[in-house]
Design goal:
Elements lengths: L2 E5 L4 H12 L3 E6 L16 E4 L7 H5 L4 E4 L6 H6 L1 H22 L3 E7 L22 H20 L2 E7 L2 E2 L12 H11 L4 E3 L5 E2 L2 E2 H11 L8 E5 L5 E2 H12 L6 E3 L14 H7 L7 H12 L4
Parallel strand pairs: 1-2, 1-4, 2-3, 4-5, 5-6, 6-11, 7-10, 8-13
Antiparallel strand pairs: 9-12
């Protein structure tokens, strides 16, 4: 049975991965410093071996010893946060990733799967986004994530450490924190609808995203651990469906029977106008399928948040 290490295990994506792997009977080891991850996200995950600390400070090679795979989810998320504090974004997202790769090499890990970001594409007008497009990051977060991705490629080519970079497109689902000042749009909008408040919309609301339900991301990570042709590659993980923020508000209102209206605010620096993925490479290299579409994923997410504080 495989032994998988998850960095950022108490975060939204990391905890969902841990839950899925433990449900499948796999051995899971995790690390989190709880700067953005939440202890309650790990409730009910039996048999998880948890280490607490900062990946920039710990002896990661010792922690990785005996692990077959590393799913590197730990990050300082949010474009807006990186604009406020670019140094911290780089330290965690770029330098932290370099430390993970070096430790994985020293520990003899078979493969590192890296949580990259669609923000690498920037705001180029061409849609859908294809991996062969030149990157054009618009924020310190995007630069740091792209730097980590390039380190992954180099560690495969130079050192023989197998890596796969998954460019996530706007992941959403259960266990995502709606209360943070940098909260992702879907949990924040759902919470606003349930509370009877108006969600902040930066700009006119016509900006579009390829919202990707968490189960699709879990599938991609699990397949990326062993897909033979994927080593050294970066692949889009999305559903190839484009939804505007105003359409998102309408969909939440329809699902809940609410009359939520947007609170329009000035556009934010570093934000991308439109996002849509081409997922053919993920399909070819990973056998990936976007099994849960936007509407179904939104319904599941709303159901999870109902009745929660």
């Amino acid at each position: 049975m495989a032994r998988t290490f998850i960095t950022g295990v108490a975060g939204f994506i990391g905890s969902n991965l841990a839950r899925a792997l433990r449900a499948a009977g796999e051995e899971v080891v995790g690390l989190d410093d709880f700067s953005t991850g939440r202890r309650e996200n790990l409730e009910g995950i039996e048999g998880l071996t948890l280490h607490e600390g900062d990946l920039r400070e710990l002896d990661l090679a010792a922690l990785f010893a005996g692990c077959d795979y590393v799913l590197h989810q730990a990050a300082m998320p949010s474009v807006a946060r990186s604009v406020d504090d670019p140094g911290a974004s780089h330290a965690v997202n770029a330098t932290g990733t370099l430390r993970v790769l070096e430790a994985a090499r020293a520990a003899g890990v078979k493969r590192v799967v890296y949580a990259s970001s669609s923000s690498a594409y920037g705001d180029t007008p061409v849609l859908p986004k294809v991996e062969t497009m030149p990157p054009s990051p618009r924020s310190p977060y995007a630069v740091a994530k792209l730097t980590g991705e390039q380190y992954c490629r180099v560690y495969t080519e130079v050192y023989g450490l197998e890596t796969v970079a998954l460019r996530y497109f706007n992941v959403f689902g259960p266990y995502q924190d709606p209360h943070s000042a940098y909260a992702a749009v879907i949990p924040r909008f759902i919470r606003c609808a349930l509370d009877g408040s108006s969600p902040p919309v930066f700009g006119d609301g016509g900006q579009t995203r390829d919202f990707t339900y968490i189960d699709n991301v879990i599938e991609a990570n699990l397949k990326a651990r062993t897909a033979p042709a994927a080593a050294g590659e970066a692949v889009n993980i999305a559903v190839a469906e484009r939804v505007s923020l105003l359409e998102l508000i309408d969909a939440i209102n329809e699902a809940l029977g609410t009359q939520m209206r947007p609170d329009h605010q000035p556009p934010r620096a570093g934000d991308v106008r439109d996002s849509l993925a081409d997922i053919s490479k993920a399909q070819a290299l990973l056998g990936y399928e976007a099994k849960v579409g936007f509407r179904e994923g939104l319904a599941r997410t709303i159901a999870w948040y109902q009745g929660r504080p």
